[in-house]
Amino acid sequence: MVILGLLLAFGLVFILILGNMLTPVFAGIVIAYLLDGLVERLARLRIPRKAAVLFVFILFMTVLLVLFGVLLPLLSKQVVQLVQELPSMIASGQKLLALLPERYPELVTDAQIRQLIGSLRSEATKLAQQILSISVASIRGVISILIYLVLVPLLVFSFLKDKDTIIQWLKEFLPEQHGLAVEVWHEVNQQIYNYIRGKLWEIIIVWGISFITFRLLNLNFSMLLSLFVGLSVLVPYIGATVMFFPVGLIGYFQWGLEANFFYALLAYAIIQALDGNLLAPLLLSEVVNLHPVAIIVAVLMFGGLWGIWGLLFAVPLGTLVHAVIKAWFRSRKRVQESAGSQPV
């Protein structure tokens, strides 16, 4: 237990101190970890590991090039369009807010509306300044992206090809008595791999269904909205609720209180209901055996500690904590049974 605790503490401190500098390495490890499952399946079909690694890496690079060549230009176009239409949306929102004191004088006053509009203008100014600062630093950002595009695929290929060598090298740093750490790793590895695989399919399916639905309704920014709807499944319970507001606002500014606006909200609600009650249980059955309350606690706790990354990795981190607690209780039980079986 001491060794397991030290390994977890060392890993946490290592990520906190060197996380920003080693981001390409961590990205390469995560991607290689996801691709290794496909390599192992090909290896079980008696395909040489080197050939399996080469095939999976070529497949990964092909998908990456398609995403950057087809999807990224479409998303960037919709982002630019959204930025261009944002001033008119804000103006429409201000007119709508200005009518509230006349319609509901007992609930809202003119002073409150003016204060709210002032706050919105201040936030819009800050957002514009941030966008300007990003554009000023665009050259540095382009250089960083180019470095990532070169380093990360190279690291992914190296991790896949030399997996056994790297693992054997890391084992040399571990003490001899590390059985409990290995036990926790096997359980967490299987759970997290199944979880990530299921979540990837869930994202793709929800993204695709949302895009088709929004396109059929002719909703503006359908690709951008559907992408975020798909990614929202990474944050259980909270993501679906948060994405309701962008979908509703875009629909309202496009149609007002017409039938299409309510159709869009109804379609989004149906997609989320099918995802929560059918798709997620089907893809993630018997994976990550955590109670919904535990999942919400993990999302709130790790989100508060590490922001957006904590939200995205809340369930895997919660699974790690759950596995450590289970291993600790199993270890105590074995010790007690061993002590009870000894002759007096």
Can you offer a commentary on this structure?
It is a single chain. This protein folds into two domains: 21-168, no CATH class; 178-334. The radius of gyration is 25 Å and the shape is globular. By secondary structure, it is mostly helical. The chain is built from twelve helices and no strands. The mean pLDDT is 77. The chain is 85% helix and 0% strand. It has helices at 2-18, 23-44, 49-103, 110-136, 138-161, 163-171, 179-216, 222-231, 238-255, 259-283, 292-312, 314-341. The longest helix is centred in the first third of the chain and has 55 residues, at 49-103.
How many DSSP E strands? 0
Count of alpha/pi helices: 12
The portion of residues forming beta strands comes to under 5%
Roughly how much helix do the residues carry, as a percent range? over 70%
**What integer is the average pLDDT?**
77
Calculate the terminal CA-CA distance, rounded to whole Å: 27 Å
Any low-confidence stretches, pLDDT <50, length ≥5?
A: none
Domains counted in the coordinates: how many?
A: 2
Q: What is the succession of H and E elements?
A: HHHHHHHHHHHH
Shape label: globular
Structural class: mainly alpha
Radius of gyration: 25 Å
Largest sheet: none
Topology (elements, then pairings):
Layout: H1 2-18, H2 23-44, H3 49-103, H4 110-136, H5 138-161, H6 163-171, H7 179-216, H8 222-231, H9 238-255, H10 259-283, H11 292-312, H12 314-341
Helix pairs in contact: 2-3, 2-5, 3-4, 3-5, 7-8, 7-10, 7-12, 8-9, 9-10, 11-12
